[in-house]
Amino acid sequence: MKTIHNGVNTFLWFERWHNGILLKDYWPTLFSDCADPWITIRHFHQLLNNPESLFLSIPAESLSALIDINPECSHNQDDILSWALEKSGNFSVKSFYKFLIDGGLRSPLYSNFWKIRCPSKVTLFCWLAGEEKILTLTNLFKKGFNFQNSTNTCVLCHNASENLQHLFLDCAFTNRIWAFFLQVLDSNSLPQSIPSLWSKWITNLNPQLRILLDLISRAVTWNIWIQRNTRIFQFNALPHFSIIFKVANVLLSWFSTAADRHQHSLNEASQKIKRSLNFLSARESDPACDPAHDLAQE
Length: 298
Ligand SMILES: [Zn+2]
What we know:
Elements: E1 2-3, H1 23-26, H2 28-33, H3 41-46, H4 64-69, E2 80-81, H5 93-102, H6 120-130, H7 137-142, H8 164-170, H9 172-184, H10 194-203, H11 207-234, H12 240-256, H13 260-284, H14 291-297
Antiparallel strand pairs: 1-2
Helix pairs in contact: 6-11, 8-9, 9-11, 9-12, 10-11, 11-12, 11-13, 12-13
Bound molecules: zinc ion.
InterPro entries: RVT-Znf
């Protein structure tokens, strides 16, 4: 990256002096029309009163965006080249090595995402969901696939289009499952979106709650997807409290395999979940709460 001072030793089109971009790639039409592709920023600055003189056919009114980003040029100091991979701007072998290893890509996932103990197929699925790579009905529709019923309506609530945000967070059916577990934990922190779930949302949580809410998020996301597929492919619709039981069951089995340092907080959560399940069992046996009744409400 270049920090501009006098603009003398920086090429307008060929160096990254504005937001890390190369202007020749950002404005290819302007670049190909420029009479002097090797013009420096200083020289361009001197032409600001008559910028169209630098171009073969581009009119002055089309140059406003380029003129707007033209930096102030002071006379006193040379432009400074800095290393974009370090905050200090100084080169380091470590940052260069990391760049070579990961290609400069920074994963937004929080650091423990791949270390959490739960089935790898679930972790992989959650990663794909976070990357917005899940084939929801809306995604399939966009890709031009034909459906049996030619609809992208959510099969859980029949009330909205099935997309990532709706299926895993906004859907009334899904919401009741989230609500159960958040209520058990006295938490009201629901993720804003699936792509932010295992990055921003989870890192902003109290560290004590992080592993617990991570496991709950994975269990809810996975079981919602299974139930959605069961409804589509096997025409078998379970009520929301059956999914709560399924989520709780996988959670209790995952808790038992978690690292020792997490066992205390997970044991406490296990007890709370079990107590709430007892209450839910009693409710389920109430004829007013049978599956047909619940589905009619959803
Ligand atoms: Zn829905």
